[in-house]
Structure to design on (216 residues):
């Protein structure tokens, strides 16, 4: 099963529902809390927002060997995705589009990037460091992380909700891979999901990050 997943590397895309694909023409970006990605229109700073789903409870290691936890992103907006360094298909295009996001906010310390390896037994710290150097990753700006496989898969499926197979149970033996990029706000809420292979979707992500900076 893993071999076929590595070879195909072609999952279906999800897309954030939005009144306009050209700009963020809403008062606030919506919030998301499950795999259906139903938008919830919540007032930022409200009690409902404070009680809403947040990304939490992990400890991973980046390409520098530094420990990465939710506290790494305190008072930061960040974009998350899932990849692996030996991916023969979509990952290089995803990495290229993450580079575009990095470039758009290269001088903005409030915006970070976080890429999780889904083959952590292969993607050691040294392998991630080599990959980062080959692909223009800026240390401290863009964290490529490895760690415990179960922890990473639980994060992807149960906190970021990145897979598309609604209602189909998955376990550690089912390969996790997706082209989705997730936008996370300063309070660890999911505020958008984007097709990391699509230029217009990545452009929308950049627009939404700018809107989120104004909101928060």
């Amino acid at each position: 099963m893993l071999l076929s997943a590595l070879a195909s590397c072609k999952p279906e895309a999800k897309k954030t529902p939005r009144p306009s694909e050209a700009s963020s023409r809403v008062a606030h970006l919506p919030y998301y809390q499950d795999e259906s990605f139903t938008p919830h229109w919540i007032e930022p700073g409200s009690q409902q927002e404070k009680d809403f789903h947040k990304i939490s409870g992990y400890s991973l290691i980046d390409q520098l060997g530094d420990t990465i936890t939710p506290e790494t992103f305190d008072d930061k907006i960040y974009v998350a995705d899932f990849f692996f360094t030996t991916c023969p298909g979509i990952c290089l295009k995803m990495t290229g589009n993450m580079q575009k996001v990095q470039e758009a906010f290269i001088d903005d310390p409030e915006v970070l990037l976080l890429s999780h390896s889904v083959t952590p037994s292969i993607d050691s710290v040294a392998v991630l460091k080599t990959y980062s150097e080959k692909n223009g990753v800026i240390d401290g700006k863009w964290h490529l992380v490895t760690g415990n496989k179960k922890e990473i898969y639980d994060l992807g499926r149960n906190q970021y909700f990145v897979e598309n197979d609604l209602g189909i149970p998955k376990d550690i033996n089912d390969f996790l891979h997706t082209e989705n990029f997730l936008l996370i706000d300063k309070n660890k809420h999911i505020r958008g999901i984007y097709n990391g292979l699509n230029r217009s979707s990545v452009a929308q992500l950049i627009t939404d990050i700018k809107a989120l900076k104004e909101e928060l």
